[in-house]
Structure formats: structure tokens, C-alpha cells
Design brief:
Number of strands: 5
Helix content: 40-55%
Structural class: alpha+beta
Order of helices and strands: HEHHEEEE
Largest sheet: 5 strands, antiparallel
Shape: rod-shaped
Amino acid sequence: MQKQFYPNEAREVEYFTNLIVRHFIKTKINYFILNQLKMKTKIMIPAMFAFSMAFAPFVANSSITNFTNSELVEDEKTQLDLQELPEVLKNAVAVDETAAALTITEAWHIKKDDGTVYYKVKFDNNGEELVKKYDAEGNIIKDTQI
């Protein structure tokens, strides 16, 4: 013999049955979505890494600054004749201990855009080129090996 339910009990059984079915469906759907997300994560993380590595050189080169025309103005250079060097420069080279024994290969008179003047002198140092810069008074500005 089957048990007969009263109207309220029937509603409760139907309610709990629906609740269990909905919970089961939600669990299955959540499990499916979770697995899909895991799959997407397994694909997306390496894809994002490969994409970032592929475009890294372009991003690194994009940091080049744009210069205005006033910043691109070069210094006014005039090459000096080695026989007719200014006295200030001759005296500065004679006083400089390292440069006095070397022979001058080139000399330049350079005027910057702000009006300052300096001399750039290249010396032959046993096959190597030694470059020295002197200001308008004959003081050494900078020594560089090329």
C-alpha cells in the first residue's frame, strides 16, 4: 500500500524534490563552467605570454622621444689649418703633459648654439686616436679615447 500524502506534505515533497534537482543542475553547470575556465586559463596564460614577448621590442622602441627642430640644431664646426692654430690652443697643447709629445692630426673650432666656443683636437697616440677638448681660454674640457 502506498502512503498517501496530505496536500501540505505533497507540496513539501515537490518543493524538496525541485530543490534537490535544481541543486544538482547548478552543481553540474558550475562544474562545467569551472572546467571551461580551467581550460581557458591553460590556453590564455601561455597565449598572453607569447603575445607580450612578441610585441616587447615594439614597446621598447616606442619610448624614443620626439625632438623639436631647435633641439636638432648642430654645433657650428670649422676645421682649422694645422699650420695656423690659434695661440690659445697652441699654448694649451704645450702646457698639457700628455698632448705635448703627440702630433696633432685634426683641429676643430666649434661654436655651440648658446654661443660658447671650444676647440676639439685629435692627436695621434701610437696608432690610437686621442681626442681632447679645450675651451676658449685653453682649459681642458674633456678627455676621451676613440
